[in-house]
Amino acid sequence: MKGVDDLLYPGKAILTNDADEVWPHLYIGDMGIAVNCAELRSMQFTHVLNCAHSSRHDGKIYDGMGITYMGIGAYDSPMYDMSAHFNNGAEFIHTAMEEGGKILVHCQVGVSRSATIVLAYLMLKQNMTLAEAIKKVKERRGIYPNPGFLRQLINLHIQLYG
Questions:
Q1: Is 107 part of the annotated catalytic residue set?
Q2: Which one of 33, 89, 121, 132 has the fewest CB atoms closer than 10 angstroms to its CB?
Q3: What is the pLDDT of residue 11?
Q4: In what order do the strands lie in the sheet with 68-71?
Q5: Can you give the residue ranges of the Tyrosine-protein phosphatase domain (predicted)?
Q6: Eight-class DSSP state of 42
């Protein structure tokens, strides 16, 4: 896991915006942008994937905005099985892209849960290795999935590439 850690953490602070485009029409963001309806409208998002879904942040805010919502009630804990959401998260993102949409994938801070799902999408639907996916996302956004999520992404890489 040392090599993957080196890709993710270059020894400097992680700097992020509220939302960063990490792949065409695919953004990773934080809760601040996710609850800012004016900004979501202005950026013309059509889909939101909330990786920190809860009764408090359940997608009702988007009613009447023409935004398709999906929530994953994930915890940012190394013990949480985020891999259980890799396929449905990747499929939601893929469908949004096929529909010509613009998607925001977010969690609380936008560096662990949401980044993990986007990395899984790039691996599953864009045929990238884990290293390629990390490099691609890091061109645009500082990310740092927790160690448990990294292990799960490494396992996905092994399943896909041996």
A1: yes
A2: 132
A3: 47
A4: 19-23, 26-29, 103-106, 47-50, 68-71
A5: 17-162
A6: H
Annotated active-site residue in 107, 115, 124, 128? 107
Reading the block at residue 86, the tokens are: 């890799």
Instruction: Report whether 117 contacts 51 (CB < 8 A).
Output: yes
**CATH number, domain with residue 86:** 3.90.190.10
User: Count of domains in the chain?
Assistant: 1
What residues contact residue 53 under an 8 Å CB cut-off, 6+ apart? 59, 71, 72, 73, 74
Report which DSSP code applies to 143.
-
Residue 11, SS3 per DSSP: coil
Question: Can you tell me whether residue 110 is helix, strand or coil?
Answer: coil
pTM flag (> 0.90):
yes
Enclosing domain of residue 96: 2-161
Coil/strand/helix, residue 22:
strand
Question: What is the C-alpha separation between 145 and 111, in angstroms, rounded?
Answer: 6
Q: Residue 154's Cα: distance from chain center in Å?
A: 16
- Residue 14's pLDDT band (cuts 50, 70, 90): low
Joined together, the tokens standing for residue 120 give: 């899984």
Query: Both tokens of residue 17?
Result: 């915006």
Q: What is the pLDDT of residues 23-76, one digit of tens each?
A: 999 999 999 999 999 999 999 999 999 999 876 777 889 999 999 999 999 999
Of all residues in the chain, what percent carry a pLDDT higher than 90? 81
